[in-house]
Amino acid sequence: MIEVAAALLAWLGAALVVLADARRGLALGLALVTVGFAVLAWGSGQPVGAIAVIAGGMTGALRCLTAAPSTWGLMPPGSTPRLVLCIAAGLLALWISASVATAPGAPLLFAVLVVLGLMAARVLSGGDAVVDRTAIACFALALASSPALASSTPTGPVPYVMGALIAAAVIVAPATLPRGAARSGKDGR
Amino acid sequence: MAAELLLAAAAALSLAVVFAPPRVRRASLLTRGLVGLAGMAAIAIAPTLDLILLILLVLAVLQAGLVSHRDFAARVRAPVLAIALLALGLAFERIEGPPVLLRFGAVGLVAGLVAAIGLLPYLHEFDPEESTVASPIPWIAFVGPVLAVAVLARARQLVPAYAGDALGAMLIGLGLLNVLWGTVAAWRTETDAAAWRYSFLSDWGLVLCGFGLAIADGQGAALILLLSIVLGRLPLYLWSRQAVRDKTPTDRPINLLVAAALAGSAPFAGFAARVMLLRGATQIYWPLAVVLAAAMLLWLPASLRLGRSMGLPRGRQAIGVAIVLAISVFLGLYPQPLLVLAGQ
């Protein structure tokens, strides 16, 4: 039951990242995704992985809180397609994990599928650098959790640690701005 | 096979740094190249596909963070799509459920691989004025070969035999698409810079066909073609950029030699690879060999155009071009030791 709640939390967090354009919404979304995957990692018998996910994801969420406009930015005008995407992705992932797949581990499968799909869609739709970095942080956490889907091969904490490092670093690292000067073509060609 | 490609990439980086045009910052090129090489080494030794995807994400974010006039979002889009497709494909391969899921998984893996490299139908956004390290060229010509070998090696362990046939068929189908599109576009496109980019596509088309054949000849041809991309086409592209920018096409013997090497004529490396590929295609399904042979003829006009666009290499670049041609001839005349080394 806890794992089902964690998976739904991850979906809610991913939906917030898709629906939000400002720092509070993005930070809360990343934090929810982090908690969701940390609980799922703990449930998969990876306490070190869970701690790593919490550390990396929360570092990113805290940094995110200071990096973008200080508003929620939730569902600005014209975000109906995004809302439809969140619901449709959730339903599709739910169908695959609960109905099509026959093996145990449906909550983790649901969380991985829905977060990967929604975050990829968020990056593809284009937007502010902070939004993209937050989406990539969530994406890294989902990617780090996916090895646990393989029931036959044991998964160590390495993917979790790596995903957590990416989630923290992608937001904490200073952003580079596009420069017209780079057009001169003197930069490492 | 990945180790050979890694060594080739290191050699290509050395060539690019040592024989770089005077206006290029060598230290910057070397630093970024070494970071890429480290990532490629990590991909080659990563025990699972999951770790490869995480490493790929690190490389994508690092490249997107480089200073360029394109913004972060535009540069990270294609790699993130690729990783998402690969990860979804991997997840489907792991799900216990109906067999159709495994076929979907195979589709995800092939689509993700093609998106990561930047081939049709997932062409990365390309701007000829952008610096090479920040452009899509490293994905298609530097990181891509090692990535493709690593991903396909692990994918073949995951995908069961009946879905493996679908994987091979998709590779061949996408390969033919890229061969035809790449050769025709490299011949007909307006700018020489775009023509160079499309020429990478056409080479990759043959590579995908080789991997899709899944027999020794196909794999061997794919390896030689990948080496000719990393050690031939990539350095030549780098040295052609100034002449392409200055629009100084030249018709000297060296340009004809470069065109012959790019077209895969004897005795250059591409010729041996093409012969092996045709032999492999004949063993599997002879009409495929006919289509490939017809497509290979399209290389000629595009390669003549690219050869002319090199301008007249002088000084260090002339030495670099000579070395690249010599390596290509060596690979073309003596491919067997390399294939034995790669276990083919």
Quick take:
Chain A is an all-alpha fold.
Walk me through this protein's architecture.
The complex is a heterodimer of chains A (189) and B (344). Chain A has helices at residues 2-19, 23-43, 47-65, 80-100, 106-125, 129-145, 158-172. With 189 residues, chain A is mainly α. Chain A has one domain (2-173). The radius of gyration of chain A is 17 Å and the shape is globular. Chain A starts with a helix and ends in a 17-residue tail after the last helix. The model of chain A is unreliable at 180-189 (pLDDT under 50). The mean pLDDT of chain B is 91. Chain B is built from 15 helices and no strands. Chain B is globular and about 60 Å long. The interface between A and B is large, with 54 and 50 residues.
Walk me through the topology.
The complex is a heterodimer of chains A (189) and B (344).
Chain A: H1 2-19, H2 23-43, H3 47-65, H4 80-100, H5 106-125, H6 129-145, H7 158-172
Chain B: H1 2-18, H2 26-45, H3 49-64, H4 72-94, H5 99-117, H6 137-158, H7 161-188, H8 192-213, H9 216-246, H10 253-263, H11 269-284, H12 286-297, H13 299-309, H14 315-333, H15 335-341
Helix pairs in contact in B: 1-2, 1-6, 1-9, 2-3, 2-6, 3-4, 4-5, 5-6, 5-7, 6-8, 6-9, 7-8, 7-12, 7-13, 8-9, 8-11, 8-13, 9-11, 9-14, 10-13, 11-12, 11-14
